[in-house]
Write a structure and sequence with these properties.
917 residues; mainly alpha; Rossmann fold; 6-stranded parallel sheet; two-stranded antiparallel ribbon; 46 helices; disordered N terminus
């Protein structure tokens, strides 16, 4: 093909058009017309690959091929490129010897750095002339192709040889192809000026287009056309990067806006190392400074001038690595930083922090570099880290605050150490309370000296109570009692509520009460919600709870204050409101990385689900909460999530889950807390469910003893009498059960859920004729309370009571309702359903629990009650009770009917019950 002389062409890097143009020049030179082509392109744009493809074509066509590649390290070596051209061409021996004798004097010439490259050195005019003549003579026999890659690195004598040949090749069958970097300013301006005075062809390789990438991906990546736009955005059309993406894709690595594979990262580094050393330094500076970059800052960090930085940025942008001055893909910047030697990376980070501090950058920006450098000195770095930490806490970014404060603490001045330690402890507590323990010593010393005030003083007591360090808590409270001025009214009110969570420290409430003598509205609200833990529940407690929740921000007040406000809503018939506040506060905790708050709020949500009877959801939430914090991080509060998990697992009849929860080691001091009371009650119910009646009685009695001693005998917290009454019923002691329920119902504090559950147990302890009335009242309370599990139990009991009195139709309807409530509450964990039969007909439905089904299956296989008791680790009495309920639900009169009934109603092959085992 013919090409216009002296024109420039912008050719896509699929190389198709570029290769066609070079092939056309070779065809033209065969007619005796010399041609020159300049191929330029950005970093890794495919220049070398294009030359190699053309060289293969030229060799196949019979042309004599002379090739060379410039290199920065060989630039001082005179005639280096000339030597490559002739000695790699496979010349006849006589010509090769002649060429060697001509190159020797040129190579021995010392380069004059100030010489004009356009003027040939006097000492090798004759050798250069003869070399050109040899080349032109060879072109008479066949076309000669001269290819020089990276000509910008060629030595001066070789450049002069090229110019000399350029002036004499017009009538020869010679094609000269020179490949060079495309830069804003030519690296060899004099050489270019002389070279381009005569007609020439310029090919500028552009980045791959989206279509070019699609063509490259064809047959290697499914849906290449759909993938190409995204890969173009990642690579900027750089062919080397695109091929690296293909390699990563074929190796199974994820490719997207946030991740790339190792091949891509290697390709980024290879691109940078192909250019001059200064480019890598600028790339590192860009990776370090990120959005804070300016040409001046980049220059100072990279040790170069702003002008050189701008040129480097242009090169990196043309290469597809940068977009608007930033790395196109975070993986590219990460690759640059990761490849930087450790000491150099530390130096760059520290220097960046210093430069940004001098420029007045935001404290968090400077602090991030200081932390990344892991080298903090006293003075301004500590001040910056403290300011950044305080700003992070104000923005609820707890993790950032901890990240800034920890490296500052070892180098801080003594007079600042206490302040930074206090902020760090509060921040760490919100992430993991156990992590704050190692930093408490300075606060303890300041506390004993009476130097702490307000929130800092409360922090010492709070942390000691949380981890069960009663001695430290008592000593700190004694200091506060002697120095009432250490607490302001709000701190004292918070302290009182905190202490109410950790009973047994009577002086705590006394100290707080003495200090809280203020008419401040916040203090009044705190005092009102504090009555939740007493029998004198304040009528304003619900409104005060909502005021506190509406006004609080994470970290502004003790977690126990917020938790008390939420539990007031949960236990006073407003679980929906509590749920909404939990959602809002959880979102805030997630944004700020306050894991401790997330965990506690998740337990409250689980508690709300439990009170609604959504037991499967409650169990899942409790497990999630336990997983958020390490075991030690929960401190004494671990009793709360374990209690909810135990109660939910008991309702679901999951014996293994109950056993697993009971095996979790809890600190002895936990039993002296509100969470411990809840745990004792829940563990009692769990023991009762698995047949360990005496262990259950011990738990209920222990719970009751502690609640009475602490004057918090509140059924809303732990209705231990109800559990103890159920245990007495299991042992066949209905009178003791009636007495316990009577005591509970005479207490002033309670709610509909607790009263409904108590009425259900009272009915079970009463005479058959009295049961329907009591159970109807229980159903009424439980419907209003919204607890589906307790409601299902009450409906089932009412159906059985009516059935025993001959009211079969109503009993069947109630059984259907019980099944519906059970379905809703178990959420995927519904027990087996079987037909309710009464004589000849049975259109109702009833439910066999997991425990009843296990007992029934073992009995159907011929096991005795005592054998079943041993297999399931339950008492013989419990086996008998389960079988009694199974007979009634399946409409059976004898044990012999079990295999037939179970196989008929569950779809099981009757032969499954033939073998014992």
């Amino acid at each position: 093909m013919a090409a216009l002389e002296g024109t420039e062409r912008l050719v896509p890097t699929d190389h198709g058009d570029a290769l066609s143009e070079l092939v056309g020049l070779l065809a033209e030179c065969s007619a005796g017309t010399g041609r020159l082509a300049l191929v330029s392109g950005g970093l890794a744009s495919g220049k070398t690959e294009l030359l190699q493809r053309f060289q293969r074509h030229a060799a196949a066509s019979g042309a004599l091929l002379l090739t060379a590649t410039g290199a920065p390290a060989e630039r001082p070596l005179q005639a280096g490129v000339i030597d490559q051209l002739f000695h790699g061409a496979g010349l006849p021996p006589e010509i090769a010897d002649r060429v060697s004798h001509l190159i020797t004097p040129i190579a021995a010439t010392v380069q004059d750095s100030g010489a004009d490259v356009r003027r040939i050195h006097h000492s090798y005019v004759r050798p250069v002339h003869e070399l050109c003549q040899i080349l032109l003579e060879m072109s008479r026999e066949r076309p000669v192709v001269v290819c020089v890659d990276d000509v910008q690195f060629a030595d001066s004598s070789s450049l002069q040889f090229i110019l000399y040949l350029r002036r004499r090749m017009r009538a020869g069958r010679v094609v000269v192809v020179l490949a060079e970097w495309q830069q804003p300013q030519p690296t060899l301006p004099q050489f270019h000026a002389e070279l381009t005075r005569r007609p020439h062809h310029r090919i500028r390789l552009a980045p791959l287009s989206v279509c070019g990438i699609a063509e490259l991906l064809r047959d290697r990546v499914p849906d290449a056309g759909a993938v190409a736009p995204a890969w173009h955005a990642l690579s900027g059309g750089n062919p080397m990067l695109v091929r690296a993406l293909v390699e990563d894709f074929e190796a199974g690595h994820e490719i997207g806006p946030d991740q790339v594979g190792p091949a891509f990262k290697r390709a980024v580094l290879e691109c940078l190392h192909r250019w001059e050393a200064g480019l890598l330094e600028v790339a590192r500076a860009i990776a370090v400074l990120g959005k804070e970059r300016t040409p001046v800052l980049l220059g100072r960090l990279a040790g170069t001038t702003p002008e050189a930085v701008e040129q480097a940025v242009d090169v990196l942008t043309a290469a597809g690595l940068l977009l608007d001055g930033c790395f196109r893909h975070p993986g590219a910047g990460a690759a640059v930083l990761d490849s930087t030697p450790g000491a150099e990376r530390v130096r760059l980070r520290a220097r960046a922090a210093e430069l940004l501090y001098q420029r007045g950058a935001a404290a968090a920006v400077v602090a991030d570099h200081l932390v990344a450098a892991d080298r903090v000195a006293s003075g301004w770095p500590v001040a910056v880290l403290r300011v950044a930490a305080e700003q992070a806490l104000m923005g609820d970014d707890v993790a950032a605050a901890v990240r800034y404060l920890e490296p500052a603490l070892p180098v801080v001045e003594p007079d600042e150490r206490l302040g930074i330690t206090s902020v760090l402890v509060r921040a760490l507590w919100r992430v993991n309370p156990a992590a704050a323990v190692v930093h408490m010593k300075p606060l303890h010393e300041a506390m004993w000296a009476g130097e702490l005030r307000g929130r800092d003083a409360v922090t010492v007591v709070h942390h000691a109570l949380w981890i069960g360090d009663e001695a430290t808590a008592v000593r700190a409270l004694a200091v506060l009692e002697r120095n009432p001025g250490m607490l302001d009214a709000q701190s004292a009110a918070e302290l009182r509520i905190v202490c109410q969570w950790f009973h047994g420290l009577d002086q705590a409430t006394a100290v707080a009460t003495d200090v809280v003598a203020d008419a401040d509205p916040w203090v009044a609200a705190a005092q009102a919600i504090g009555t939740f833990w007493t029998a004198e529940f304040h009528p304003d407690a619900i409104a005060s709870a909502e005021h506190i929740l509406r006004s609080c921000r994470l970290g502004d007040m003790a977690l126990e204050v917020v938790l008390t406000a939420l539990l007031i809503l949960v236990h006073t018939g407003h679980p929906d409101r509590a749920e909404r506040w939990c959602d809002r506060l959880t979102a805030e905790a997630v944004r700020g990385g306050a894991v401790t708050w997330q965990a506690i709020l998740e337990v409250v949500r689980a508690d709300v689900d439990l009170r609604r009877g959504e037991v499967a959801v409650a169990a899942a939430r409790a497990e999630t909460a336990l997983a958020l914090l390490p075991h030690q991080g929960w401190g004494l509060a671990i009793g709360y999530p374990l209690a909810v998990l135990l109660e939910a697992s008991t309702a679901l009849d999951r014996h293994r889950a109950i056993a697993d929860a009971m095996r979790v080691r809890v600190p002895d001091a936990m039993f002296a807390t509100a969470a411990g009371l809840r745990y004792l009650y829940a563990r009692g119910n769990g023991n009762l469910a698995v047949g360990r009646v005496l262990a259950a009685i011990s738990d209920f009695q222990n719970c009751g003893t502690r609640m009475r001693e602490w004057r918090v005998d509140l059924p809303v917290l732990a209705p231990w009498r109800c559990g103890l009454a159920q245990a007495n019923l299991t042992l066949g002691r209905p009178e003791a059960a009636r007495e316990l329920i009577g005591e509970q119902m005479r207490l002033p504090a309670g709610d509909r859920r607790t009263r409904g559950a108590a009425l259900r147990v009272l009915a079970a302890a009463g005479e058959p004729a009295e049961r329907p009335a009591l159970l109807r009242e229980a159903v009424r309370h439980l419907r209003q309370a919204g607890d589906r599990v307790e409601l299902a139990r009450a409906l089932s009991d009412l159906g059985e009571a009516l059935d025993a009195l001959g009211k079969h139709a109503e009993a069947r309807e109630l059984s259907r309702s019980a099944v519906a409530e059970t379905k809703a509450s178990y959420s995927g964990a519904v027990p087996i359903q079987v037909d309710w039969e009464d004589g000849d007909s049975g259109d109702g439905r009833s439910v066999l629990s997991d425990s009843e089904l296990r007992v029934a299956e073992l009995a159907a296989k011929g096991h005795t009650n005592r054998e079943i008791s041993a297999i399931l680790y339950i008492t013989v009495s419990t086996v008998e009770q389960h079988l009694t309920r199974v007979y009634r639900k399946l409409g059976m009169r004898s044990r012999a009917d079990l295999p037939h009934r179970l196989s008929q109603r569950t779809g099981t092959d009757p032969r499954a019950f033939e073998a014992r085992g």
